[in-house]
Design goal:
The protein is α+β, with helices and mostly antiparallel strands. Helix content is 20%, strand content 30%.
Length: 396
């Protein structure tokens, strides 16, 4: 018994729209009266009325919001702006379908290659795909032709859900996660990050996914601030304990191992300074550029604010502690080891929120970001909400 598979894909694109189709036909050759099944997965660009979605529920407060670092600043916007038309670009199936994650990934890959690789778009949202579990999300991601990576060396507490898929964040729901480029505090950051909504927050309950295009950030930052960061870079200092009950995160969780020699190898390979403390905890540090050159332009790509101890001083699980800044899980300095003034950190936070947009993800939503162009954040929420994440390195 033999089977033949024919796969054909077509793409038609313009600046205003992209339409991709993948048709998968399977013909079994063991009989002259072989049955033929035909499944079409067509993704079409869809215009979402974001303003109407926002008006259907209370505005999302930013200024003065509890457990949001820097929210008391008068320069932070009072409310979060909704997405703009075409940002993010949204694609949905042309009609309800029953297709595998692998079949859905074929046209999605064409969308991503056209918009994120060949063009300069920063975010693509897929809505209405027949995906519902971490395993299906994993299979979809594995079929996009990306170089998927682990979260080794990451700063957040995450749990693995499936192959190349983790929980997006285990931070408490009443805390707001600031806008940040994923793993910009390392030299092995992902180029693309994908979020999949397993369980959305209830309408009006918060948990908005926030997007910020760094190309809008750099022109708004004070020139003197940018010049100093361009000259000195950012030193990221991290301190994590040995595994213990109740710890924020341990070096075992950060490096996905129980073996110190693996950590030693990681540090040497990435040319980081580090020190094992007498209590089994680990400190390490590295200095990286605050600005990167990407596709011929200079972009703001760093985390001096969200990796600073001030992040924890506005955190519900850490606000009661009175400890040195370098004994929080992470802290930042200028590249010469001097402290970054609070006013500079606040200025960065102000500008990021001024150009941020956000929306509540729906169940099954899958958004892919160019991590070099777009930061992400999460507003606090009540009730339940669960997102999964998958990371991918830059293609060769």
């Amino acid at each position: 018994m033999a089977a033949a598979s024919i796969l054909s894909c077509a793409v038609r694109s313009s600046r205003g729209a992209v339409r991709l189709a993948c048709r998968h036909s399977r013909r079994q050759s063991y009989s002259t009266e072989a049955a033929r099944s035909l499944t079409a997965v067509n993704l079409v660009e869809t215009q979402v009325d974001w303003s109407a979605e926002v008006q259907a529920q209370p505005p999302v407060r930013v200024r003065g919001r509890g457990w949001l670092p820097g929210s008391s600043s008068p320069n932070i916007p009072e409310f979060l702006s909704p997405p703009r038309p075409g940002y993010p670009r949204v694609f949905t199936p042309e009609q309800p379908l029953d297709a595998s994650p692998e079949e859905c990934a074929v046209p999605a890959r064409k969308v991503l290659e056209h918009l994120l690789d060949e063009s300069s778009e920063g975010a693509v949202l897929f809505r209405g795909l027949p995906l519902g579990t971490p395993e299906e999300f994993s299979r979809f991601m594995a079929s996009l032709g990306l170089k998927l990576m682990t979260y080794q060396g990451g700063s957040s507490v995450r749990n693995n859900l499936a192959e190349s898929v983790d929980t997006a964040s285990n931070e408490p729901p009443n805390f707001c996660i600031e806008p940040h480029n994923e793993m910009a505090y390392t030299d092995h950051f992902p180029e693309k990050i994908s979020f999949f909504c397993l369980q959305p927050a209830a309408r009006g309950a918060g948990g908005e996914t926030v997007l910020t295009d760094v190309r809008e950030v750099l022109p708004r930052l004070d020139t003197a601030v940018v010049d100093k960061f361009r000259k000195l870079g950012v030193q990221y200092f991290r301190h994590v304990p040995n595994r213990a009950p109740g710890s924020y995160t341990s070096w075992q969780e950060v490096f996905l191992t129980e073996d110190r020699s693996v950590v030693d190898g990681y540090m040497k390979e990435n040319e980081m300074g580090y020190q094992w403390e007498s209590d089994g905890s680990l400190s390490w540090w590295t200095t990286l550029p605050a600005l990167r050159h990407y596709r011929g332009e200079e972009i703001w790509f760093c985390q001096p604010h969200s990796m600073n101890a001030s992040y924890f001083k506005a955190h519900p699980d850490w606000s009661q502690y009175d400890i040195p800044d370098n004994r929080y899980p992470f802290h930042t300095y200028y590249g010469d080891g001097t402290e970054i003034p609070p006013a500079v950190l606040q200025h960065i936070r102000d500008v990021l929120w001024q150009v941020s947009v956000g929306f509540q993800m729906q169940k099954g939503d899958l958004i892919v970001l160019n991590n070099m162009y777009v930061t992400h954040a999460r507003m606090s929420f009540t009730g339940n909400r669960k997102l999964a994440i998958s990371l991918a390195l830059q293609r060769d």
